[in-house]
Amino acid sequence: MHTASLPILSQYTLNALSTIEHETRRLFHGRGRCFEGLEHITVDWLQGQVLVSLFKAPAEDFLLALQDTLEQWTSTPQWQSSSTRSLLLQHRYQQNAPIECIWGEHHTQQLITENGLTFKLDLDRNQNSGLFLDMRLGRKWVKENSQHKRVLNLFSYTCGFSVAALAGEAEYVVNIDMAKSVLNRGRENHRLNGHDLSQVSFFGHDIFKSWGKIKKFGQYDLIIIDPPTFQKGSFAITKDYQKILRRLPELLTQKGKVLACVNDPTLSAQFLIDNMKAEAPNLQFLSRLDNPAEFPDIDSESGLKALIFQA
C-alpha cells in the first residue's frame, strides 16, 4: 500500500458517491488489483454509513495518511450532498476485525436494500457484515429464476439467496448452514421482507455428516452452492466440493438447475466445470454470471465465479 495512491482512492470513491443511487453498492474495489498501491482496500456505501475495509496490516505512515485522507472526504461537496451519517474504518487483518468510527455516529446494525430487498447488516466486531456484495447479480438471477420452484440453499449464511428466491415466488426454500446464529439472521431477513416463513426451513446442520434432512424434502428444482473457500475443521474447497457435486443427481428434478459458486482467487471457473463433469456428468454447463461492474478485476478468474448448470 502506497500513500502516493491515496488521491486515486479519493477520486474513485467520491465520484462513485456522487452518483450513487438509493441501494447499497461498493464504491471502490482495490482487491481486483486494478489500482496499484490500493490492492488491500475496499469502500462500501451502506445507505448512510461508508465502510472502508483494510485487508492487510498497513505501515504506520500509510495508516496515518489514510486516516487523514478519510477525514478530508467529509468536507468535500460530494460527501456533504450525500446522506452519509458515519465513516467507518474496519481493520480486517486484526482479530475480530474491529471497526473504528472516523466521523459521525457508528450504528452497529444497518438496514440496506439490494434489488428492492431489505437485509440487516452487523457493523460491529464481525469480519463479515452479513451480505457479500459481489453476489448481487447472483441473487438477482435467483429472484428471476425461482418462480414456483423448490430451492435448496447450501451454505446459506444469512439466507440472502433464500430471500431472493421467495421474492421471486419460490414454492419452498430449504436453508442449510452449520451456524445457527446466521440462520437466525436469515429468519429476520425474511421477516423484514414480509415473507411467509411457512415456506422456508432453516437447518443448522453439517451436510457431510448426513444428507437425510435434505433428502426428506424430496427433489429440488434449483440448488445453490456458495461455500466458503476454507472453514477450519469443516470445509476445504479443493477436496470437499466434489462430495457435494456427486449428490446433485439424486437431489435435482428433471431439468433442475444448479448455481455453483467459487470465490477462491486461485481457482478458475474450469475447476467447477471439470469437477461437475467428473462427479455429475449428466449436468451440463450453461453459462457464467457476470460480476457487478463495481468489482473490477485484473483477471476475471480471480474474482467470483458463479456458474449455472442444468440436469
UniProtKB/TrEMBL annotation:
Keywords: Methyltransferase, rRNA processing, S-adenosyl-L-methionine, Transferase
Annotated ranges, domain S-adenosylmethionine-dependent methyltransferase: 25-309
Gene3D superfamilies the UniProt entry points to: Vaccinia Virus protein VP39 (3.40.50.150)
GO terms of biological process kind: methylation
Nuclease in keyword set: no
Pfam families referenced in this protein's UniProt entry, alphabetically: Methyltrans_SAM
Keyword Ribonucleoprotein: no
Parts of the chain that traverse the membrane: none
Superkingdom per UniProt: Bacteria
UniProt-recorded Gene Ontology molecular function terms: methyltransferase activity
EC number annotated for this UniProt entry: 2.1.1.-
Enzyme category, top tier: transferase
Name listed for the protein in its UniProt record: Class I SAM-dependent methyltransferase
Originating species: Marinomonas arenicola
Native organism taxonomy: Bacteria, Pseudomonadati, Pseudomonadota, Gammaproteobacteria, Oceanospirillales
